[in-house]
Description:
Layout: E1 12-18, E2 27-33, H1 51-64, E3 67-73, H2 75-81, H3 83-97, E4 104-108, E5 120-123, H4 131-152, H5 160-163, H6 169-178
Parallel strand pairs: 1-4, 4-5
Antiparallel strand pairs: 1-2, 2-3
Helix pairs in contact: 1-4, 2-3
Domain RNase H type-2: 10-203
EC number: 3.1.26.4
Keywords: Cytoplasm, Endonuclease, Hydrolase, Manganese, Metal-binding, Nuclease
Amino acid sequence: xxxxxxxxxxxxxxxxxxxxxxxxxxxxxxxxxxxxxxxxxxxxxxxxxxxxxxxxxxxxxxxxxxxxxxxxxxxxxxxxxxxxxxxxxxxxxxxxxxxxxxxxxxxxxxxxxxxxxxxxxxxxxxxxxxxxxxxxxxxxxxxxxxxxxxxxxxxxxxxxxxxxxxxxxxxxxxxxxxxxxxxxxxxxxxxxxxxxxxxxxxx
Length: 203
């Protein structure tokens, strides 16, 4: 079972992103402040849950969190500032929207650009260790997945409703054959699918 938070002296927000490694679409991030007594036997790293579990947990998080917010950075901004900085910016935009100002931030991963003067800790695989980061991973992924499903209707041949914009073999092949859409990240390399180890579907 995951631990509620990293430290207990300060109001803590967990942060995580989704879509960093995609060829198309925005990167999303979420920030979540959970009650100290919040518990869940299901909540975990979003990648370890089914779609149904993610949606179930999103409802729980949105109802029971002290506050939560989601931010995004589109593909054009990603091309301008690079994906690492875009991931940081998406997290900053999510934190900007929190109704309660956090006193401490816990970030999934090993790097982060400081937000204001709020202290933070970077935690590798933090979404599988702390509930507040796991909650942020759920919100970031589900909101991004819904966005990708919506734009998939404009370009159904890219199969974004299933691959979510990740560089699957099928996605790369159709991108080579038909060209890039306005949603693609132009600074990302689209190599021939025979050299790619990604599966054809991403859930």
